[in-house]
């Protein structure tokens, strides 16, 4: 099973030390109630070989370059183990000559977001709903001091730890399997990212307030979410599903989202990017057995979902505490 004690030791003397008042007990309880497949997924990490990369690239990719090329047999064994952790949704990863071609080209999103951010050098960062951790590694590549991702999905934790092992066991990023609603207000992070989470929340303003509680004064929120066209009063509340997803509750316009953020006490709120999700950014691959974006759109009109709603459009907003 995954050992969180190195993380406890790492934060014991820093500005996250107060988290130790609640975190060890929470994770102990989490392990007792973990998904039935968790033990099997965690074993995959043990089965991966101890490899040393001669070069780690976290600036233009998430890549580990081996000191000497692996044999075809060694590569196939690693691929076999990594595919026990499918579906791989956020990526891509290039690890010792193995390309994990994930459903999402998360590098597309990162390249849209990065130019607008306050410099991440030396920052302590929280990534909420981090998935397998792709963006966390890119934050490390930008010089972050520590990146903490939270996501309650056990499969994503095991994917993250598998990638970490193949990245020379880098300890600048950590994934904690909790939701933000389980975190005490730490007011300790210089940057807080919430990307692809807000529309899954039944109470979006509560989510925005929880994000604000984790920021230091002056810290930066990076919020990426689905949006629709419209004015300050425009919000889509799907009556059933949105793009086949059951757990989509509120999709606001950019103007409505700015209003929400200001109501929650954020300052300097600005939208820096709006982009329709393309079939090049989200698609089926050999690392995904499930459906993907093409299956969620009206086959006769890709401007609409199967349910007749506007097709996925995502905005990036920045704000400060």
UniProtKB/TrEMBL annotation:
First-tier enzyme category under EC: transferase
Positions of carboxy-S-adenosyl-L-methionine binding: 90, 104, 109, 129, 151-153, 180-181, 195, 199, 314
A matching Pfam family: Methyltransf_9
Keyword field contains Methyltransferase: yes
GO biological process: methylation; tRNA wobble uridine modification
EC number: 2.5.1.-
Gene3D superfamilies, sorted: Vaccinia Virus protein VP39
Keywords associated with the record: Methyltransferase, Transferase, tRNA processing
GO molecular function, one term: transferase activity, transferring alkyl or aryl (other than methyl) groups
InterPro entries: CmoB (IPR010017), Mo5U34_MeTrfas-like (IPR027555), SAM-dependent_MTases_sf (IPR029063)
Catalytic activity: carboxy-S-adenosyl-L-methionine + 5-hydroxyuridine(34) in tRNA = 5-carboxymethoxyuridine(34) in tRNA + S-adenosyl-L-homocysteine + H(+)
Keyword Membrane belongs to the record: no
PANTHER family named in the record: METHYLTRANSFERASE, TRNA U34 CARBOXYMETHYLTRANSFERASE
Family: Belongs to the class I-like SAM-binding methyltransferase superfamily. CmoB family.
Functional note: Catalyzes carboxymethyl transfer from carboxy-S-adenosyl-L-methionine (Cx-SAM) to 5-hydroxyuridine (ho5U) to form 5-carboxymethoxyuridine (cmo5U) at position 34 in tRNAs.
Subunit composition and interactions: Homotetramer.
Protein name: tRNA U34 carboxymethyltransferase
The species this protein was found in: Testudinibacter aquarius
């Amino acid at each position: 099973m995954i050992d969180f004690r190195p993380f406890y030791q790492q934060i014991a003397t820093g500005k996250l030390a107060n988290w130790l008042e609640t975190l060890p007990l929470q994770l102990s309880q989490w392990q007792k109630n973990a998904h039935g497949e968790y033990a099997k997924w965690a074993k995959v990490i043990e089965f991966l070989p101890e490899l040393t990369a001669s070069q780690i690239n976290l600036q233009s990719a998430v890549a580990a370059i081996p000191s000497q090329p692996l044999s075809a047999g060694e590569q196939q064994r690693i691929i076999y183990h990594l595919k026990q952790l499918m579906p791989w949704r956020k990526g891509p990863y290039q690890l010792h000559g193995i390309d994990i071609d994930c459903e999402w080209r998360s590098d597309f999103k990162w390249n849209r977001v990065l130019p607008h951010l306050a410099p991440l050098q030396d920052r302590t960062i929280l990534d909420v709903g981090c998935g397998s951790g792709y963006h966390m590694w890119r934050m490390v590549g930008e010089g972050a001091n520590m990146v903490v991702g939270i996501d309650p999905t056990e499969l994503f934790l095991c994917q993250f730890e598998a990638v970490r092992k193949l990245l020379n066991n880098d300890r600048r990023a950590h994934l904690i399997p909790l939701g933000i609603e389980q975190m005490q207000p730490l007011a300790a992070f210089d940057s807080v990212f919430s990307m692809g989470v807000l529309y899954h929340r039944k109470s979006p303003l509560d989510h925005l307030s929880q994000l604000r509680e984790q920021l230091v004064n002056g810290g930066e929120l990076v919020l990426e979410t689905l949006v629709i066209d419209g004015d300050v009063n425009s919000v889509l509340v799907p009556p059933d599903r949105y793009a086949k997803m059951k757990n989509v509750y509120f999709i606001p316009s950019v103007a409505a989202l700015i209003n929400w953020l200001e109501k929650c006490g954020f300052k300097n709120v600005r939208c820096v990017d709006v982009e329709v999700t393309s079939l090049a950014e989200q698609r089926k691959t050999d690392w995904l057995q499930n459906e993907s974006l093409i299956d969620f759109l009206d086959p006769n009109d890709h401007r609409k979902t199967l349910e007749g709603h506007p097709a996925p459009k995502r905005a990036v907003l920045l704000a400060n505490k």
